Amino acid sequence: MKPFFITFEGVEGSGKSTQVGKLASKLREEKYAIEVVREPGGTRIGELIRHITHDRENVDLTAVSEVYLMAASRAQLVREIIRPAMDNGRLVIADRFIDSSLAYQGYGRNLGEDVVTSINKLALDGVFPDITIFLDITPEEGFKRRNGTEKIDRLDLQQKEFYERVYQGYKKLAEKYKDRYVVVGGNKSIDEVADQIWDRLKVKLQTPNSK
Question: Rounded to whole angstroms, how far apart are CA atoms 21 and 120?
Answer without folding.
Answer: 27
